[in-house]
């Protein structure tokens, strides 16, 4: 007797990808990501003003951000008292989970003939096998690419983690004004990732784009060191967004190409762990730097680290692979 049919069976069928259509899957993935990030920033945008109202200083707020980063890094649930934003976030996340389960295919990456696959009958590694996950970082070229990703993201991560405090203390912005600024930042991210990077990737190599992003980080860092008003910050935001988006897209592409199809999900998970790592270390380090040296220190750190990264990239170019991640 055949078992009961479920929507998941259809998702895992080989023909599902062609039935649903690749463009529909990509569009739905963008929508789900937009829902999740919108709900997340609905809560994060009011957190610094709530913490200030409760009497927390920048150091205490840094500890709060570190706690959030640790929980995010470990993948544990974050519990809190129910407010309107968390309720809406929970409902929207539930909707995203339903759409993911019913409409996204189980596999969206085609099989590659030049990658190693485990022999038939060999034991399958557990999803909680940390040694198997760590082994991905020992593959050829992966450690250097991953180190570039972490190092270049670290200075900007420090600044962005402390931005809510900077927007209140340094820029003297109200909650609504800070929200408009973050909306401007998010809009530029959407345009850059959705339109600009796609056009550039068709004309330039990943190596060239990676160097360009690091060079842009250096220029933005120099401008940030001399920044004195929110108007100056708005002028350097496009360069900052270009650097962030290009670096993350290119390094993610390089890292996923360096592993087999079966390890793509694990590698994407490692790539996604960079931001929680920065949210874990960033608030404490960023809070100390901000209190001790002020806003210009973030620009100085960004210039210093990315100059070193650029020298490494020029001395030993990154490998170029023919296969492209669509």
List its traits:
326 residues; mainly alpha; Growth Hormone, Chain: A; 73% helix; globular; disordered N terminus
- CATH fold descriptor of the domain at 133-315: Growth Hormone, Chain: A
| Oligomer kind | single chain
Question: What value does the average pLDDT take?
Answer: 74
Low-confidence stretches: 1-17, 75-82, 111-116
Describe the global form. globular
- Could you estimate the helical fraction of the residues in percent? over 70%
Output the helix-strand order.
HHHHHHHHHHHHHH
Q: Number of helical runs?
A: 14
CATH class of the domain at 133-315: Mainly Alpha
What's the architecture of the domain at 133-315 in CATH terms?
A: Up-down Bundle
Structural category is mainly alpha
The total strand number stands at: 0
Major β-sheet profile:
none
Q: What is the CATH superfamily label of the domain at 133-315?
A: MFS general substrate transporter like domains
Radius of gyration: 21 Å
Span of the ends, CA to CA:
40 Å
Pfam family, one: MFS_1
Membrane topology: Multi-pass membrane protein
Protein name: Solute carrier family 22 member 18
Transmembrane segments: 20-42, 54-75, 87-106, 146-166, 178-196, 208-224, 293-314
């Amino acid at each position: 007797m055949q078992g009961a049919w479920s929507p998941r069976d259809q998702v895992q069928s080989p023909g599902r990808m062609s039935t649903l259509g690749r463009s529909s899957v990509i569009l739905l993935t963008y929508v789900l990501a937009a829902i999740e990030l919108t709900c997340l920033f609905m809560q994060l945008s009011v957190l610094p003003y709530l913490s200030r109202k409760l009497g927390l200083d920048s150091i205490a707020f840094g500890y709060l951000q570190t706690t959030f980063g640790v929980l995010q890094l470990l993948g544990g649930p974050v519990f809190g008292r129910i407010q309107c934003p968390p309720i809406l976030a929970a409902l929207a996340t539930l909707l995203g989970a339903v759409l993911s389960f019913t409409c996204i295919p189980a596999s969206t990456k085609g099989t590659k003939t030049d990658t190693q696959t485990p022999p038939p009958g060999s034991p399958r590694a557990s999803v909680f096998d940390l040694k198997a996950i760590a082994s991905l970082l020992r593959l050829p070229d992966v450690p250097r690419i991953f180190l570039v990703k972490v190092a270049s993201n670290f200075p900007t991560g420090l600044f962005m983690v402390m931005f809510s405090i900077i927007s209140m203390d340094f820029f003297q912005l109200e909650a609504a004004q800070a929200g408009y600024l973050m909306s401007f930042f998010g809009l530029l991210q959407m345009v850059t990732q959705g339109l600009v990077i796609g056009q550039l990737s068709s004309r330039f190599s990943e190596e060239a784009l990676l160097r360009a992003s690091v060079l842009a980080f250096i220029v933005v860092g120099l401008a940030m060191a001399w920044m004195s008003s929110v108007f100056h910050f708005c002028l350097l935001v496009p360069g900052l967004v270009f650097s962030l988006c290009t670096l993350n897209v290119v390094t993610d592409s390089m890292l996923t190409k360096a592993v087999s199809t079966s390890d793509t999900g694990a590698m994407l998970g490692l790539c996604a762990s960079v931001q929680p790592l920065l949210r874990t270390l960033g608030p404490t380090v960023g809070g100390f730097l901000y209190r001790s040296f002020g806003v210009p220190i973030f620009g100085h750190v960004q210039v210093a680290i990315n100059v070193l990264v650029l020298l490494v990239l020029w001395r030993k170019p990154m490998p170029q692979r023919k296969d492209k991640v669509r």
